[in-house]
Amino acid sequence: MTSVQNDPLNLAVGKVFRRVVPLFVVMLICNQLNRANIGYAQVHLEADVGIGAAAYGLGAGLFFIAYAVFELPSNMLMERYGPKIWLTRIMVSWGVVSAAMMFVQGPTSFYVLRFLLGAAEAGFFPAIIYYFSRWLPSSHRGRATALFVAGSSVAAAISGPLSGPLLSMHGFLGLTGWKWLFLVEGVLSIVVGLFAYTRLDSRVADARWLTAPEKDALTAAIEFEDAARRTTSDSVSRWRILAQPQVLLFCLIYFAIQLSIYANTFWLPAIVRRINGTGDITVGLLSSLPWICAVVAMYFTGRASDRSGRSKPLLIASLVVAGVATFLAAIASPIFALVLLCVAAMGFKSASPLFWTIPQGSVHPVALAAVVAVVNSLGNLGGFVAPYGFGLIKQATGQVTWGLYGLAAACLLAAVLVLFIRRDRVVTAPAATRTPVQEPS
């Protein structure tokens, strides 16, 4: 056991998990807070600057249009300037734009700033996945990705308790509560982004916190896997893989998952407000409950997936649970609907990290990075359709019931589509180079 603990590769990977992964989780928490805080400011934006349900939904969704448009250029610039500089740029720029949301005067400025926020954040998730590919052997990237994705649920869980007090600062120093919300969370991202610059390194060779043997072992393991990919690249075309029907399946399934996540992200506070006697603080606290439940569910489904090595059945079960619970929430009383949405969140949030383990095991290594970028870009368009569609539905009917019906149908359809995914063998480093990582104490 001692030899395993003292193995240079094991020590290096352990250091990456302790130094880098927690930082990325914090960065993702800031990311989610800044893209979703308008859900808590919605009522105040409508009252103060006249942004109705349809305009709110369109503005919330425009973020994802910009994100999809600018994601590929952002990834290209990241490869040119390196993850250290580019991830810092992404965080600082989205913090500036998010803070600028305090100057919204009406629908037009709301649309412009939401679009700019999407452009600023574009490429963040693929950049993290790319970073893992340069710093971790493939045998450890799945757990790192799962821990990273869990940060979005942590953000959703704390966003309510954080947003309520900030909104309650109404009138402090002459600013309304919603302006404090945007300002404080935007500045937080800027501070974390600048801190990240002091902690990140673009290349393993630049990491002073790794010893020379650790650098050599980590570099050798990753280069071995890169070499294995290159030996198969002559007979496999990246573009042919991108054109395969399986990639379309990935896009559709991830689109459905994102529909559920962002419909609840942007409209859950409005659903909670149907409960009699709720205010800003109670809405914030109650809105955090589904995301707290989701964090617990993600932990147990992740462990089950690691132990069984079979993520497809768990993914199907998660989507079915999400679909059934969402349907029942549409017809339940407000309080019982919140309970059902807690169950639904356990389903669709668990589905996200479970989903990303499947491309890693079914896509040829030569095209994996490109497939991740394409699926993430197109799937994230669910973040446009969900809030905009819910806004139109609420504008027309005064409620979001039919939107919940649509989410339920999308989850159940995605569960069926998972059945058609086939799994292929992935090239990994030989067993001798893949020692287990000890859990950080």
Tell me the fraction of residues in β-strands, as a range.
Answer: under 5%
Rg, nearest Å? 22 Å
Distance between the termini: 16 Å
Integer count of domains: 2
Helix and strand element order: HHHHHHHHHHHHHHHHHHH
Report the major sheet.
Answer: none
User: Superfamily at the CATH H level of the largest domain?
Assistant: MFS general substrate transporter like domains
Unreliable stretches covering 5 or more consecutive residues: 424-441
Helix-strand makeup class: mainly alpha
> How many β-strands, per DSSP?
0
Please state the second-level CATH architecture of the largest domain. Answer: Up-down Bundle
Helix content: over 70%
What is the number of helical segments per DSSP (H or I, 4+ residues)? Answer: 19
Do you know the CATH topology of the largest domain?
Growth Hormone, Chain: A
Shape: globular
Task: Name the CATH class of the largest domain.
Answer: Mainly Alpha
User: How would you state the average pLDDT, rounded?
Assistant: 80
Organism: Amycolatopsis melonis
Domain Major facilitator superfamily (MFS) profile: 20-426
InterPro entries: MFS (IPR011701), MFS_dom (IPR020846), MFS_trans_sf (IPR036259)
Membrane topology: Multi-pass membrane protein
